[in-house]
Amino acid sequence: MTRYSVVRHEPKKRTDQTHAIWRGIGCLLALIVPMMSWLLATGTLLLAFRQGWPLPYQLLGYPVLPEGLWKIPAFWPILSFIGRQQHLYMTLVLALMYIIVISAVLSLAYSLVYRFVGPPRYGPLDMPQPKIKIGRYKR
């Protein structure tokens, strides 16, 4: 080989795919968390009425649907179902808040478990951390 010839080394293609178990757990959580938050929101709303908590009256009652949607015959079953839901807006707000809280708790739990069980932060090819003592700056 001459000095100026080109040598090609093609790197191996890494497939970074998520394990099937984690995809299954993610799919279950995508279904379970909204259903659980809806049930918690409904239960919280019933408890709030029983205990007499002050709730915003603008979010209570039956939902108001636009008149233009009723002109489309395919939407009638959906709109009539939505129109029969009492306190729908308040339930949606509470369910959204529960989704945020449950997702935050699950993320925190996952990060803590991953921190203790997961791979080390630095691999064998990483340089060690620099050991620098930083003193107080004096002028």
Describe this structure in words.
This protein is mostly helical and 139 residues long. It has a domain of 73 residues. Helices cover 50% and strands 0% of the residues. The protein has three helices and no strands. Helix 1 packs across helix 3. The chain is elongated, with a radius of gyration of 28 Å. The N and C termini lie far apart (61 Å). The mean pLDDT is 86.
Write a brief caption for the model.
The chain has 139 residues and is an all-alpha fold.
Give the helices and strands, then pairings.
Layout: H1 20-51, H2 76-83, H3 88-117
Helix pairs in contact: 1-3
What are the defining features of this structure?
139 residues; mainly alpha
How much of the polypeptide forms β-strand, as a percent range?
under 5%
Number of helices: 3
Looking at the structure, what is the overall shape?
A: elongated
Instruction: Give the quaternary arrangement of the chains.
Output: single chain
**Average pLDDT score:** 86
Radius of gyration: 28 Å
Order of helices and strands: HHH
The number of strands is 0
Helix content: 40-55%
Unreliable parts: none
What class would the helix/strand composition place it in?
A: mainly alpha
Q: The biggest beta sheet, please?
A: none
- Ends: how far apart? 61 Å
